[in-house]
Amino acid sequence: MSEEGKAAAVNQDSSPVEENEPSVKAGSPNDFLKGVTGKRVAVRLNSGIDYLGTLSCLDGYMNIAMEDTTEYVDGNVKSSLGDAFIRGNNGTLTWFVRLTVVLYITALDEIDTQA
């Protein structure tokens, strides 16, 4: 890195950035979800149940389709589901329905972070 480049590369606290420090590229959640489609993911629900499988597709309502899915309850395998569909929240709340909410989706396979 040139001296000019070193002077320009600083952290928010004005300390220099190391040359070999990995740069983190912030992306949108939509970019992340596009990047993990077709990859192995873990989906955690508010009930504490985890689903591990290959993300087939999802939509804006967080309806999630997965393949080769395994359900885990309290860290233990509950069942092997194969294809699974997790119905997301469409924004309509009914007082007598206990909502299943997706807390997070995390990648289990390495994803390409290059845009």
Automatic annotation (TrEMBL):
GO terms for cellular component: nucleolus; P-body; sno(s)RNA-containing ribonucleoprotein complex; spliceosomal complex; U4/U6 x U5 tri-snRNP complex; U6 snRNP. GO terms for biological process: maturation of SSU-rRNA; mRNA splicing, via spliceosome; tRNA processing. PROSITE patterns: SM. Pfam families: LSM (PF01423). Residues 1-31 are annotated as: Disordered. Its main location: cytoplasm. CDD domains: LSm6. Signal peptide: none annotated. It is found in: Cytoplasm; Nucleus. InterPro entries: Lsm6/sSmF (IPR016487), LSM_dom_sf (IPR010920), Sm (IPR047575), Sm_dom_euk/arc (IPR001163). GO terms for molecular function: RNA binding. Residues 28-100 form the Sm domain. Keywords: Cytoplasm, mRNA processing, mRNA splicing, Nucleus, Ribonucleoprotein, RNA-binding, rRNA processing, Spliceosome, tRNA processing. Component of LSm protein complexes, which are involved in RNA processing and may function in a chaperone-like manner, facilitating the efficient association of RNA processing factors with their substrates. Component of the cytoplasmic LSM1-LSM7 complex, which is thought to be involved in mRNA degradation by activating the decapping step in the 5'-to-3' mRNA decay pathway. Component of the nuclear LSM2-LSM8 complex, which is involved in splicing of nuclear mRNAs. Component of the heptameric LSM1-LSM7 complex, which consists of LSM1, LSM2, LSM3, LSM4, LSM5, LSM6 and LSM7. Component of the heptameric LSM2-LSM8 complex, which consists of LSM2, LSM3, LSM4, LSM5, LSM6, LSM7 and LSM8. The LSm subunits form a seven-membered ring structure with a doughnut shape. Belongs to the snRNP Sm proteins family. SmF/LSm6 subfamily. This is U6 snRNA-associated Sm-like protein LSm6. The lineage of its organism: Eukaryota, Fungi, Dikarya, Basidiomycota, Ustilaginomycotina. The gene is LSM6.
